Amino acid sequence: MSAQFPDEQTEEGAFERQEDAFRHWVTEDGSSEFPAEPGRYHVYVSLACPWAHRTIIIRKLKGLENIIGMTVVDPIRDERGWAFRKGPGHFLDPVNGFQFLSDAYTMTDPAYQSRVTVPVLWDTQARRIVNNSEDDIMRMFNQTFNRFTNIQTDFYPESLRSDIDQLNESIYENVNDGVYKAGFATSQQAYEKAVCALFETLDQLERRLSNQRYLFGSQITETDWKLFVTLIRFDVVYHGHFKCNIRRIIDYPNLFGYLKDLYQHEGIAETVNSNHIKCHYYITHDDINPTRIVPVGPEQDLLSPHGREGVP
Length: 312
Hints:
The chain has helices spanning 50-61, 102-108, 134-144, 161-176, 178-183, 188-208, 222-241, 253-263, 274-284, and strands spanning 41-45, 69-72, 120-123, 128-131. A four-stranded mixed β-sheet has the order 2-1-3-4, with helices on both faces. The model has no long low-confidence stretch (mean pLDDT 97). The chain contains nine helices and four strands; from the N terminus they run βαβαββααααααα. With 312 residues, the protein is mainly alpha-helical. β3 and β4 (128-131) form a beta hairpin.
Protein backbone atom coordinates (compact mmCIF):
# COMPACT_ATOMS: atom_id res chain seq x y z
CA MET A 1 0.00 0.00 0.00
CA SER A 2 1.34 3.45 -0.88
CA ALA A 3 1.70 5.99 1.93
CA GLN A 4 -0.23 9.27 1.91
CA PHE A 5 2.96 11.11 2.89
CA PRO A 6 5.96 8.82 2.24
CA ASP A 7 8.45 11.09 4.01
CA GLU A 8 6.39 10.79 7.20
CA GLN A 9 6.06 7.00 7.17
CA THR A 10 8.23 4.58 9.13
CA GLU A 11 9.49 1.25 7.84
CA GLU A 12 6.95 -0.39 10.17
CA GLY A 13 4.08 1.39 8.39
CA ALA A 14 3.38 4.00 11.07
CA PHE A 15 2.61 7.63 10.30
CA GLU A 16 4.90 10.13 12.06
CA ARG A 17 3.87 13.73 11.49
CA GLN A 18 6.53 16.23 10.48
CA GLU A 19 7.51 19.07 12.82
CA ASP A 20 6.25 22.59 12.21
CA ALA A 21 8.91 24.63 10.41
CA PHE A 22 8.12 28.20 11.43
CA ARG A 23 7.78 29.02 15.12
CA HIS A 24 8.25 32.80 15.43
CA TRP A 25 6.06 34.65 17.90
CA VAL A 26 3.94 37.77 17.66
CA THR A 27 4.50 39.65 20.93
CA GLU A 28 2.18 41.98 22.79
CA ASP A 29 5.04 44.15 24.08
CA GLY A 30 6.89 44.35 20.75
CA SER A 31 9.89 42.41 22.08
CA SER A 32 10.06 40.28 18.91
CA GLU A 33 10.40 41.35 15.29
CA PHE A 34 6.65 40.68 15.03
CA PRO A 35 4.79 43.16 17.26
CA ALA A 36 1.04 42.81 17.72
CA GLU A 37 -0.70 45.32 15.47
CA PRO A 38 -4.25 45.40 14.08
CA GLY A 39 -4.44 44.61 10.39
CA ARG A 40 -0.82 43.48 10.07
CA TYR A 41 -1.34 39.71 10.23
CA HIS A 42 -3.36 37.35 8.06
CA VAL A 43 -4.12 33.68 8.65
CA TYR A 44 -4.45 31.17 5.81
CA VAL A 45 -6.71 28.26 6.75
CA SER A 46 -8.74 25.32 5.51
CA LEU A 47 -12.23 24.72 6.87
CA ALA A 48 -11.59 21.01 6.30
CA CYS A 49 -8.47 20.82 8.45
CA PRO A 50 -8.85 20.23 12.20
CA TRP A 51 -5.52 21.91 12.96
CA ALA A 52 -6.58 25.09 11.15
CA HIS A 53 -10.08 24.87 12.66
CA ARG A 54 -8.61 25.42 16.13
CA THR A 55 -7.25 28.82 15.11
CA ILE A 56 -10.49 29.79 13.36
CA ILE A 57 -12.40 29.11 16.59
CA ILE A 58 -10.11 31.15 18.85
CA ARG A 59 -10.01 34.04 16.34
CA LYS A 60 -13.81 34.12 16.41
CA LEU A 61 -14.25 33.67 20.16
CA LYS A 62 -11.71 36.40 20.92
CA GLY A 63 -13.37 38.88 18.55
CA LEU A 64 -10.33 39.21 16.29
CA GLU A 65 -12.08 39.00 12.93
CA ASN A 66 -11.46 42.69 12.19
CA ILE A 67 -7.95 42.57 13.63
CA ILE A 68 -6.52 39.53 11.83
CA GLY A 69 -7.57 38.77 8.25
CA MET A 70 -8.34 35.26 7.09
CA THR A 71 -8.46 33.46 3.74
CA VAL A 72 -9.84 29.95 3.23
CA VAL A 73 -8.17 27.63 0.71
CA ASP A 74 -9.89 25.12 -1.58
CA PRO A 75 -10.66 21.98 0.46
CA ILE A 76 -9.62 19.73 -2.42
CA ARG A 77 -5.85 19.40 -2.38
CA ASP A 78 -3.88 17.82 -5.23
CA GLU A 79 -0.18 17.11 -5.77
CA ARG A 80 0.47 20.86 -5.87
CA GLY A 81 -0.89 21.30 -2.36
CA TRP A 82 -3.40 23.73 -0.91
CA ALA A 83 -4.71 26.16 -3.55
CA PHE A 84 -6.46 29.51 -3.61
CA ARG A 85 -9.52 29.14 -5.83
CA LYS A 86 -12.86 30.88 -5.81
CA GLY A 87 -15.72 28.58 -4.88
CA PRO A 88 -18.31 27.84 -2.19
CA GLY A 89 -16.67 28.90 1.07
CA HIS A 90 -13.15 29.29 -0.36
CA PHE A 91 -11.44 32.19 -2.03
CA LEU A 92 -8.62 33.68 -4.07
CA ASP A 93 -5.75 35.15 -2.06
CA PRO A 94 -6.49 38.87 -1.53
CA VAL A 95 -3.20 39.63 0.22
CA ASN A 96 -0.44 38.38 -2.08
CA GLY A 97 -2.25 36.93 -5.07
CA PHE A 98 -0.73 33.53 -4.38
CA GLN A 99 -2.10 30.65 -6.43
CA PHE A 100 -0.90 28.04 -3.96
CA LEU A 101 -0.05 28.14 -0.28
CA SER A 102 3.35 26.74 -1.20
CA ASP A 103 4.11 30.21 -2.62
CA ALA A 104 4.04 31.57 0.95
CA TYR A 105 6.47 28.89 2.09
CA THR A 106 8.98 29.43 -0.71
CA MET A 107 8.75 33.22 -0.34
CA THR A 108 9.68 32.77 3.32
CA ASP A 109 12.29 30.05 2.73
CA PRO A 110 13.29 29.37 -0.91
CA ALA A 111 14.91 26.09 0.20
CA TYR A 112 11.75 24.73 1.87
CA GLN A 113 11.09 21.15 0.75
CA SER A 114 8.76 19.67 3.36
CA ARG A 115 4.98 19.35 3.23
CA VAL A 116 2.95 22.56 3.06
CA THR A 117 0.40 22.73 5.87
CA VAL A 118 -2.33 24.95 7.26
CA PRO A 119 -2.77 27.10 9.25
CA VAL A 120 -0.23 29.76 8.31
CA LEU A 121 0.10 33.08 10.12
CA TRP A 122 1.39 35.63 7.60
CA ASP A 123 2.98 39.02 8.25
CA THR A 124 1.72 41.39 5.54
CA GLN A 125 4.48 43.93 6.27
CA ALA A 126 7.48 41.62 6.37
CA ARG A 127 5.83 39.45 3.69
CA ARG A 128 6.77 36.18 5.29
CA ILE A 129 5.36 33.35 7.41
CA VAL A 130 5.50 34.06 11.12
CA ASN A 131 4.25 30.69 12.30
CA ASN A 132 2.66 27.49 10.98
CA SER A 133 2.04 25.79 14.34
CA GLU A 134 -1.63 25.72 15.26
CA ASP A 135 -0.76 25.45 18.95
CA ASP A 136 1.32 28.62 18.84
CA ILE A 137 -1.23 30.51 16.75
CA MET A 138 -4.06 29.54 19.11
CA ARG A 139 -2.12 30.93 22.05
CA MET A 140 -1.16 34.11 20.23
CA PHE A 141 -4.80 34.69 19.34
CA ASN A 142 -5.78 33.93 22.93
CA GLN A 143 -3.52 36.52 24.55
CA THR A 144 -1.25 38.58 22.31
CA PHE A 145 -3.96 40.72 20.72
CA ASN A 146 -5.95 41.36 23.90
CA ARG A 147 -5.57 45.13 23.80
CA PHE A 148 -7.37 45.24 20.44
CA THR A 149 -10.47 43.34 21.58
CA ASN A 150 -13.09 43.72 24.29
CA ILE A 151 -13.21 39.95 24.81
CA GLN A 152 -10.73 39.02 27.53
CA THR A 153 -11.71 35.36 27.95
CA ASP A 154 -8.60 33.30 28.66
CA PHE A 155 -8.57 29.78 27.19
CA TYR A 156 -5.13 29.04 28.69
CA PRO A 157 -5.44 30.30 32.28
CA GLU A 158 -2.22 30.34 34.27
CA SER A 159 -3.70 28.36 37.15
CA LEU A 160 -4.46 25.41 34.85
CA ARG A 161 -1.52 25.52 32.46
CA SER A 162 0.34 22.50 33.81
CA ASP A 163 -2.82 20.37 33.75
CA ILE A 164 -3.82 21.69 30.32
CA ASP A 165 -0.39 20.87 28.87
CA GLN A 166 -0.55 17.34 30.27
CA LEU A 167 -4.03 16.59 28.93
CA ASN A 168 -3.24 18.28 25.61
CA GLU A 169 -0.37 15.86 25.09
CA SER A 170 -2.53 12.78 25.67
CA ILE A 171 -5.35 14.04 23.44
CA TYR A 172 -2.93 15.07 20.70
CA GLU A 173 -1.02 11.79 20.62
CA ASN A 174 -3.99 9.45 20.89
CA VAL A 175 -6.99 11.34 19.49
CA ASN A 176 -6.11 14.39 17.36
CA ASP A 177 -3.17 12.71 15.67
CA GLY A 178 -4.38 9.23 16.61
CA VAL A 179 -7.06 9.23 13.92
CA TYR A 180 -4.37 10.06 11.35
CA LYS A 181 -2.06 7.38 12.69
CA ALA A 182 -4.88 4.89 12.13
CA GLY A 183 -5.95 6.27 8.76
CA PHE A 184 -2.48 6.66 7.28
CA ALA A 185 -1.06 3.39 8.64
CA THR A 186 0.31 1.09 5.95
CA SER A 187 0.57 -2.02 8.13
CA GLN A 188 -2.01 -3.89 10.20
CA GLN A 189 0.16 -3.66 13.31
CA ALA A 190 0.53 0.14 13.08
CA TYR A 191 -3.19 0.56 12.43
CA GLU A 192 -4.29 -1.61 15.36
CA LYS A 193 -1.86 0.09 17.75
CA ALA A 194 -3.20 3.52 16.81
CA VAL A 195 -6.88 2.61 16.84
CA CYS A 196 -6.66 0.84 20.21
CA ALA A 197 -4.90 3.84 21.80
CA LEU A 198 -7.54 6.12 20.26
CA PHE A 199 -10.50 4.30 21.76
CA GLU A 200 -8.81 3.76 25.11
CA THR A 201 -8.43 7.53 25.33
CA LEU A 202 -11.98 8.21 24.15
CA ASP A 203 -13.22 5.82 26.85
CA GLN A 204 -11.20 7.75 29.45
CA LEU A 205 -12.61 11.06 28.23
CA GLU A 206 -16.15 9.63 28.36
CA ARG A 207 -15.61 8.79 32.04
CA ARG A 208 -14.02 12.18 32.75
CA LEU A 209 -17.03 13.99 31.30
CA SER A 210 -19.49 11.97 33.38
CA ASN A 211 -19.08 14.34 36.33
CA GLN A 212 -17.92 17.63 34.79
CA ARG A 213 -19.31 19.71 31.95
CA TYR A 214 -15.98 20.43 30.26
CA LEU A 215 -12.54 18.86 30.49
CA PHE A 216 -11.56 21.15 33.37
CA GLY A 217 -14.91 21.58 35.08
CA SER A 218 -17.18 24.52 34.31
CA GLN A 219 -14.58 26.53 32.36
CA ILE A 220 -13.93 26.01 28.65
CA THR A 221 -10.21 25.90 27.85
CA GLU A 222 -8.13 25.47 24.71
CA THR A 223 -8.12 21.72 25.39
CA ASP A 224 -11.88 21.56 24.83
CA TRP A 225 -11.53 23.21 21.43
CA LYS A 226 -8.61 20.97 20.52
CA LEU A 227 -10.77 17.94 21.24
CA PHE A 228 -13.85 19.45 19.59
CA VAL A 229 -12.26 19.73 16.13
CA THR A 230 -11.61 15.98 16.09
CA LEU A 231 -14.98 15.01 17.56
CA ILE A 232 -16.91 17.09 15.00
CA ARG A 233 -15.16 15.20 12.18
CA PHE A 234 -15.24 11.77 13.78
CA ASP A 235 -18.55 10.24 12.72
CA VAL A 236 -18.51 12.16 9.42
CA VAL A 237 -15.03 11.10 8.30
CA TYR A 238 -12.76 9.27 10.72
CA HIS A 239 -15.14 6.43 11.61
CA GLY A 240 -15.35 5.21 8.01
CA HIS A 241 -12.58 6.81 5.98
CA PHE A 242 -9.86 6.23 8.59
CA LYS A 243 -11.32 2.91 9.86
CA CYS A 244 -11.76 4.24 13.40
CA ASN A 245 -14.87 2.14 13.69
CA ILE A 246 -14.97 0.46 17.09
CA ARG A 247 -17.54 3.04 18.16
CA ARG A 248 -18.95 6.35 16.94
CA ILE A 249 -19.04 9.52 19.01
CA ILE A 250 -22.84 9.32 18.99
CA ASP A 251 -22.43 6.02 20.88
CA TYR A 252 -20.79 7.85 23.79
CA PRO A 253 -23.53 9.65 25.78
CA ASN A 254 -21.19 12.07 27.54
CA LEU A 255 -18.88 12.79 24.60
CA PHE A 256 -21.80 13.31 22.23
CA GLY A 257 -23.59 15.63 24.64
CA TYR A 258 -20.31 17.50 25.16
CA LEU A 259 -19.83 17.79 21.38
CA LYS A 260 -23.33 19.25 20.99
CA ASP A 261 -22.73 21.61 23.92
CA LEU A 262 -19.59 23.05 22.29
CA TYR A 263 -21.18 23.14 18.83
CA GLN A 264 -24.06 25.20 20.22
CA HIS A 265 -21.67 27.73 21.77
CA GLU A 266 -22.25 31.12 20.13
CA GLY A 267 -20.41 31.44 16.81
CA ILE A 268 -19.06 27.89 16.65
CA ALA A 269 -21.55 26.30 14.22
CA GLU A 270 -20.55 28.80 11.52
CA THR A 271 -16.94 27.60 11.75
CA VAL A 272 -18.00 24.05 10.80
CA ASN A 273 -18.32 23.25 7.10
CA SER A 274 -19.22 19.58 6.63
CA ASN A 275 -19.05 19.82 2.84
CA HIS A 276 -15.46 21.06 2.95
CA ILE A 277 -14.59 18.37 5.49
CA LYS A 278 -16.04 15.47 3.50
CA CYS A 279 -14.79 16.67 0.11
CA HIS A 280 -11.28 17.16 1.42
CA TYR A 281 -10.87 13.74 2.99
CA TYR A 282 -12.76 11.61 0.48
CA ILE A 283 -11.47 13.32 -2.68
CA THR A 284 -7.95 14.30 -1.63
CA HIS A 285 -7.00 10.94 -0.08
CA ASP A 286 -7.47 8.93 -3.26
CA ASP A 287 -5.03 6.26 -2.07
CA ILE A 288 -7.52 5.49 0.71
CA ASN A 289 -10.66 6.23 -1.36
CA PRO A 290 -9.72 5.54 -5.02
CA THR A 291 -13.26 6.17 -6.36
CA ARG A 292 -13.27 9.64 -4.74
CA ILE A 293 -16.98 9.17 -4.03
CA VAL A 294 -18.13 11.43 -1.18
CA PRO A 295 -20.69 9.88 1.19
CA VAL A 296 -24.06 11.59 1.51
CA GLY A 297 -24.32 10.99 5.27
CA PRO A 298 -24.26 10.62 8.11
CA GLU A 299 -26.99 12.88 9.41
CA GLN A 300 -26.05 14.53 12.69
CA ASP A 301 -28.47 16.21 15.07
CA LEU A 302 -26.16 18.67 16.76
CA LEU A 303 -28.84 21.21 17.70
CA SER A 304 -31.00 19.03 19.94
CA PRO A 305 -30.70 19.58 23.71
CA HIS A 306 -27.29 18.50 24.94
CA GLY A 307 -28.28 17.96 28.57
CA ARG A 308 -24.97 19.21 29.95
CA GLU A 309 -26.25 22.20 31.93
CA GLY A 310 -26.60 20.23 35.15
CA VAL A 311 -23.14 18.71 35.02
CA PRO A 312 -20.75 20.55 37.41
